[in-house]
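Dear colleagues,

As part of the handover before I leave the project, I'm documenting each prediction I ran so the next person doesn't have to rerun anything. This entry is a single chain, and its sequence is reproduced below.
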Amino acid sequence: MSETEQNGEVTAQLVDGSTPATPEALFEKLDALDIPHRTVEHPPLYTVEESRSLRGELPGGHTKNLFLRNKKGGMWLVTCLEDRAIDLKDLGERLGGYRLSFGRPERLMQYLGVIPGAVTPFSVLNDHQDAVQMVLDSALLNHDPLNFHPLDNARTTAISPKNLLKFLEAVGHYPQVISLD
């Protein structure tokens, strides 16, 4: 991961040398796209299990996000319902015959600008080189609202499925929508 020091603090950089977007920059983008959103703050969450125990009564679909890669450097961000059991071998075949593995935290920061536990479809806002392919579980589109971390795992942001698609298209990451049943 490329890092710079500013005022004694180490700041992460994306692969193109820019600084990852903040949650506030994401909210500005959503507002500019006329996408309604609602955000709640909570203690940092790193796993689906932690999310289940701390989210309270947030309505809608809750998700997990997998940052995957293959040996040739291809990368995918797979967003699915939180209770989905994902078979990486099967998913790799469905995505083109690839052998997939989880991307390393350094690569996650370089391309999507987030840490493990904060992975979200919103993070493609940081993928200025279109290096990461977005994959959505089709079942997500049956839940309204959908809940995601807004680049920060100490918050959860709710938006509609229609507006998730609008956001992804606006940032040039047209998702592949597949059934992960």
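The chain has one domain: 2-178. The longest helix spans residues 23-32.

All the best with the project,
I.
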